């Protein structure tokens, strides 16, 4: 009875769909390294027990000091692979799918940010900051992230700073990440509200522009702090002036009163 239940449960698992949703934004099968390594031949290079555990809890293995895991983590710019709540039988099916070469790669529009116009960059900034709504109703990036100088204008801190996202992911990788958002806290939200191709390109163009400009300099931070302090003193001065004016008016003698 137990084996029958396990068999039917495993049969319901769709390895192709799981790879598409959970893996394809960072990995290819025979298409070369991307955000993460190319998985072609991985079942020959690595022991199945190691692969099962790594897919289920990669960060735990990295933190344990496993030399292979640490080497991969450092090679791919320390990108954190989310843990996957998959049973061993499901991981084995996923590995069989990868071993067989996976499904044919879907071609998707990937317009390079290098072709962006200043208007594209401005549109991307507006989408990122939320001053322009995403067409399918998803939350703006600034709800959880910041980038460049937006950190001084109320950028979110739940997610990482994306100032260097373009360098970290490269053009194609960033397109895939924005098209197939698989990070646990975002996947469920954007599954029904994906970005359009135009929105992916425009946000990518903004992030390229921010990355090219470089991280916010200490000089800019000091300037911003100075302007903030100056604004505070100006505000206090206005309040003091207003209070003094009211005090002088209230101390004047009323008509017919004694001097």
Give a description of the structure:
The chain has 259 residues and is an all-alpha fold. It folds into 2 domains: 10-99, Orthogonal Bundle (Cytochrome Bc1 Complex, Chain D, domain 2), CATH 1.10.760.10; 113-213, Cytochrome Bc1 Complex, Chain D, domain 2 (Orthogonal Bundle). The chain contains 11 helices and no strands. α4 crosses α5 (67-75), α4 (48-63) packs across α6 and α7 (118-129) packs across α10. The longest helix is centred in the C-terminal third of the chain and has 34 residues, at 218-251. The chain starts with a helix and ends in an 8-residue tail after the last helix.
Number of strands: 0
Percent range for β-strand residues? under 5%
Q: Which superfamily, in CATH terms, is the homologous superfamily of the largest domain?
A: Cytochrome c-like domain
Give, in order, the helices and strands: HHHHHHHHHHH
Q: What is the highest CATH level, the class of the largest domain?
A: Mainly Alpha
Radius of gyration: 27 Å
At CATH level 2, the architecture of the largest domain is: Orthogonal Bundle
Low-confidence stretches: 1-11, 217-224
From the N-terminal CA to the C-terminal CA, the straight-line distance is: 106 Å
Mean pLDDT: 80
The biggest beta sheet, please?
none
Structural class category: mainly alpha
The CATH topology of the largest domain is: Cytochrome Bc1 Complex, Chain D, domain 2
Helical content (DSSP H or I, runs of 4+): 55-70%
Domain count: 2
The gross shape turns out to be elongated
Q: Helix segment count?
A: 11
